[in-house]
């Protein structure tokens, strides 16, 4: 039985004070969250502070990205072993904003997945199609290509050490959510594709939905057979919008 994971992606938001308030509020509400794994992914600079505040709690910390290299002359990068050392459990890789704004390719994402995994982090691999790709009927081709980059580099077994987040790009930060049926169809496709290579990995891997998930739509999305949790952007920035999703 797969556990439900709800992870908050804070993106480039917050300040020392606002993040302290958010974490304090989250901790206060966590006693009402049962049977759900919860994680938050702050901007890099706040990770040590958040990890310290969350130490010993049920809330894990993740990064929003990590370098594909371990160390060396890579100005501006943060390596996966550093994130692990500073208290991260998870690392988001291949978020659509990294792909579309910073030009990261499927190969870059696969290398970051490999680096996170090697450091003992649990990579959260984001996949998902653009609106145009959905309208052209190539959603499954796009998602398969994004998954294959990791499978080809690391082998299908590597997916057992990670989490997959299906995030239709047209639903991220737009207020447009995939219907539970639309999301379930892609989640089932992803699990089926993995199952064709390794049934055990497919049965084990958590597949999250991301894209304007909120307190109002979380329960029906999370009720779908292959949706094992959520990757939450906007609604993770306040405890009163994030905790209801964790409780759902
Ligand atoms: C995301 O950025 O991963 C995301 C799902 O954002 P939002 O919930 O704001 O759509």
What this model shows, in words?
- This protein is an alpha/beta fold.
- It has one domain: TIM Barrel (Alpha-Beta Barrel).
- It has helices at 16-29, 47-54, 80-85, 96-101, 106-118, 131-135, 139-154, 180-197, 199-204, 218-222, 239-247; strands at 4-9, 36-41, 59-63, 90-93, 122-127, 163-166, 206-210, 229-232.
- It has an 8-stranded parallel β-barrel with strand order 1-2-3-4-5-6-7-8, surrounded by 5 helices.
- Helix 1 (16-29) runs parallel beside helix 2, helix 5 packs across helix 7 (139-154) and helix 7 (139-154) runs parallel beside helix 8 (180-197).
- The model has no long low-confidence stretch (mean pLDDT 97).
- Phosphoenolpyruvate is lined by residues 9, 167, 172-173, 210-213, 231-235.
Notable traits:
alpha/beta; 11 helices; globular; 248 residues; 43% helix; single chain; binds phosphoenolpyruvate; 8-stranded parallel β-barrel; TIM Barrel
Main sheet: strand order:
1-2-3-4-5-6-7-8
Low-confidence segments: none
- Could you give the count of β-strands? 8
Work out the count of structural domains.
Answer: 1
Assign the CATH architecture: Alpha-Beta Barrel
Class from secondary-structure proportions: alpha/beta
The secondary-structure element order is: EHEHEHEHHEHHEHHEHEH
SSE arrangement:
Elements: E1 4-9, H1 16-29, E2 36-41, H2 47-54, E3 59-63, H3 80-85, E4 90-93, H4 96-101, H5 106-118, E5 122-127, H6 131-135, H7 139-154, E6 163-166, H8 180-197, H9 199-204, E7 206-210, H10 218-222, E8 229-232, H11 239-247
Parallel strand pairs: 1-2, 1-8, 2-3, 3-4, 4-5, 5-6, 6-7, 7-8
Helix pairs in contact: 1-2, 1-11, 5-7, 7-8
The protein binds phosphoenolpyruvate.
Phosphoenolpyruvate (PEP) binds next to strand 8.
């Amino acid at each position: 039985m797969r556990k439900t994971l709800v992870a908050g992606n804070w993106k480039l938001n917050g300040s020392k004070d606002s993040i302290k308030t958010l974490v304090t509020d989250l901790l206060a509400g966590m006693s009402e969250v049962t049977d759900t794994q919860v994680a938050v992914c702050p901007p890099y600079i706040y990770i040590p502070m958040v990890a310290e505040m969350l130490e010993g709690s049920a809330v894990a910390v993740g990064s929003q990205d990590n370098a594909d290299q371990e160390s060396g002359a890579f100005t501006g990068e943060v390596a996966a072993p550093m994130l692990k050392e500073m208290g991260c459990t998870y690392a988001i890789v291949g978020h659509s904003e990294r792909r579309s704004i910073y030009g990261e390719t499927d190969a870059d994402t696969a290398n970051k997945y490999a680096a996170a995994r090697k450091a003992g982090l649990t990579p959260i691999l984001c996949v998902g199609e653009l609106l145009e790709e959905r309208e052209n009927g190539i959603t499954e081709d796009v998602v398969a290509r994004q998954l294959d980059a990791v499978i080809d580099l690391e082998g299908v077994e590597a997916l057992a050490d990670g989490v997959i987040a299906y995030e239709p790009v047209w639903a991220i930060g737009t207020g447009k959510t995939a219907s539970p049926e639309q999301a379930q169809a892609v989640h089932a496709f992803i699990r089926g594709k993995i199952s064709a290579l390794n049934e055990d990995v497919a049965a084990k891997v958590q597949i999250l939905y991301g894209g304007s998930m909120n307190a109002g739509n979380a329960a029906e999305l999370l009720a779908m057979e292959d949706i094992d949790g959520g990757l939450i952007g906007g609604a993770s920035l306040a405890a009163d919008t994030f905790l209801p999703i964790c409780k759902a």
